Amino acid sequence: MRDEMKSEAENAYVSFFTKKELEETLNKIGCSRYPNDHRSMRIKELLRKHKYNRTKQLVEEEIYILKYSFILFNNAESYKIINKHEKELAEYVMENSEEIMRVSMYDFIETKSSRYGKRGTA
Fold this sequence. Notes:
Layout: H1 2-11, H2 19-30, H3 43-72, H4 76-82, H5 86-95, H6 101-119
């Protein structure tokens, strides 16, 4: 599966990420179990089930999978919002313990996107 994903990314026309970023993302995803069955759960439920460290790891894995999906779908704006902000996004998701993991992630992206849009930068 990982080789297929790497091949798809290399064959896709994308110009907003470096080969090093792609390799780092692929390595992170390679350590993850995907699809992440926990992305539709509330953080408080994950904390109750897995405790803090494992829940944070699940969140970080999902962030890298999301980042990689933006590469595959050539979504440069969302990729740039996540890239180099992975820790900030993970903290945001963990703080929103009443929220579903994926909803918090997209809230973060939407908030950043509107802020960048007002300044005219991505």
